[in-house]
């Protein structure tokens, strides 16, 4: 595929990447730009989600069972995300761990045709479902990327807004992932994220400890989550628990 034949979202997003369009264009397939390194070593949790059945199950059941762990309704999550990111028409947004693209398309609607949303995930089946969702919604301001949150394939300081809904607990190195998000955030950029979390600061034991040791799936103490966001380089950090198992964090990049 020649650069001139590249899909419109890729042409619009080309300046965001740390490589040129001639290298990017051949990696675009079925609505997804695949930049995941061949040496990437997924955790057990990441391998589970990189599966067509799991992607289907998660996509069809996520909202139905969210309330059982105290998560708010999806529309309430989107409204809170919209407010914390202060989304505006024309924003360039990065949606990390975008999964099946449910938040990605909501972000795309809010930034409008003049804006751009880049959804990134490591799971090909999830991204395939996201691509179908984007096509169904007839959105031409979304680019989906298969890539690693611990080594984001973007230049420094290029995103006005960054979101990571429900993906932080899957990061095997949370500090590194947040540091990468801060690196690609422009000065003044806003960040939102959510994670399995807990109110206490005790060491993970029992089932939660087993999940961390075996699957790199962690329940971050909400205080530690806020501190990690701050250490990464975001200021004005806020946190909130939803129920006993889900935590939200947000901040602003003022010194990028």
Strand fraction equals 15-25%
Query: Rg to the nearest angstrom?
Result: 17 Å
Do you know the CATH architecture? 3-Layer(aba) Sandwich
* Biggest sheet record: 10 strands, mixed
By CATH, the topology is Rossmann fold
Number of helices: 10
Count of β-strands? 10
**SS-based class:** alpha/beta
Shape: globular
Compressed to H and E, one letter per element, the order equals HHEEHHHEHEHEEHEHEHEE
Q: What's the CATH first level?
A: Alpha Beta
Low-confidence stretches: 1-6, 207-216
**N-to-C span:** 36 Å
Number of spatially distinct domains: 1
Annotated CATH homologous superfamily: Vaccinia Virus protein VP39
Mean pLDDT: 88
Q: In which range does the helix fraction lie? A: 25-40%
Question: Would you kindly provide a brief summary of this structure?
Answer:
With 256 residues, the chain is α/β, with parallel strands linked by helices. It has helices at 8-13, 21-24, 44-49, 52-65, 74-85, 102-111, 124-136, 174-183, 206-215, 222-232; strands at 28-29, 32-34, 92-96, 116-121, 142-146, 159-164, 185-198, 220-221, 235-242, 246-253. The protein has a single domain, classed as Rossmann fold, CATH 3.40.50.150.
Reconstruct the topology from this structure.
Blueprint: H1 8-13, H2 21-24, E1 28-29, E2 32-34, H3 44-49, H4 52-65, H5 74-85, E3 92-96, H6 102-111, E4 116-121, H7 124-136, E5 142-146, E6 159-164, H8 174-183, E7 185-198, H9 206-215, E8 220-221, H10 222-232, E9 235-242, E10 246-253
């Amino acid at each position: 595929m020649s650069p001139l034949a590249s899909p419109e979202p890729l042409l619009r997003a080309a300046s965001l990447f740390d490589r040129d369009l001639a290298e990017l264009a051949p990696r675009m397939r079925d609505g997804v730009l695949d930049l995941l390194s061949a040496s990437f070593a997924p955790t057990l949790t990441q391998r589970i989600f990189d599966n067509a059945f799991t992607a289907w199950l998660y996509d069809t059941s996520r909202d139905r069972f969210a309330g059982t762990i105290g998560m708010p309704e999806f529309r309430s999550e989107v409204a809170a995300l919209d407010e914390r990111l202060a989304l505006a028409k024309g924003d360039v947004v990065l949606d990390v761990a975008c999964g099946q693209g449910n938040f990605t398309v909501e972000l795309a609607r809010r930034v409008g045709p003049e804006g751009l949303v880049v959804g990134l995930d490591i799971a090909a089946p999830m991204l395939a479902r996201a691509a179908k969702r984007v096509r169904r919604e007839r959105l031409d301001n979304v680019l989906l990327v298969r890539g690693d949150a611990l080594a984001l394939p973007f230049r420094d300081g290029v995103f006005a807004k960054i979101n990571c809904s429900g993906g932080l607990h899957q990061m095997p190195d949370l500090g590194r992932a947040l540091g990468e998000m801060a690196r690609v955030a422009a000065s003044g950029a806003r960040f939102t994220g959510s994670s399995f979390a807990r109110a206490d600061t005790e060491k993970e034991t029992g089932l939660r400890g087993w999940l961390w040791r075996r699957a790199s799936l962690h329940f971050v103490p909400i205080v530690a989550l806020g501190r990690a966001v701050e250490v990464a380089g975001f200021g004005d950090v806020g946190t909130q628990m939803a129920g006993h198992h889900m935590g939200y964090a947000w901040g602003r990049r003022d010194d990028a």
